[in-house]
Every structure is written in C-alpha cells, then in structure tokens.
Amino acid sequence: MANHKSALKAMRKSEKNRLHNRYYAKTMRNAVRSLRAMTNKEEASAAYPKVQKMLDKMAKTKLIHKNKAANLKSKLCAYIAKLA
Please, are residues 72 and 57 in contact by the beta-carbon 8 Å criterion? Predict the structure, then answer.
C-alpha cells in the first residue's frame, strides 16, 4: 500500500484516467465497427465525419497513435468508396 499522500492521490487519479480512457477507446472501436457494418453508401458517408472526428480526438489526446488514426480513416474512406 502507498505510504505517501501524493502516492494515494496518484493511485486515485490513474484509476480515474484508466476508466476514462477505456470508455472512449471502447466507444471509438464500436463506432468504427458500426461504420464497417453499414452497407448503404449514403448512410456510411453521413456517419463517417463523426467517426473521423472521434479518431482525431483520440489521436490528439494520445489514446491511439496518430498513424493508427490515419490508417483507420484511410481504410474507412476506401470502404465507403467501394460501397455500391
């Protein structure tokens, strides 16, 4: 167990941050998954900007790497273009 007040605070803060990051990471993954499940091009095109914004925010806060965000956006864009 922690011996200092600052260590106790660090434990509380890290747990709070872990839950916060876990929530946003899961939300982002679900958004990407739901976009990939769409078969209607208009629907997918309408949903893409929201997912793109989410990915950019995750990269900005370093929850995911900026290259991962770029790769996901590129793949999703290609998927939408391929839809009939």
Answer: no
CA angle (16 as vertex; 26, 71 as ends), nearest 5: 30
Write down the pTM of the prediction. Answer: 0.84
Which residues of the chain register pLDDT less than 50? none
* Per-residue confidence (pLDDT) for residue 69, from 0 to 100: 97
Query: d(Cα 14, Cα 59) in Å, to the nearest integer?
Result: 19
Can you list the pairs that 74-79 forms with residues at least 24 positions away whose Cβ atoms lie under 8 Å? 76/32, 76/35, 76/36, 76/48, 76/51, 76/52, 77/48, 79/35, 79/36, 79/44
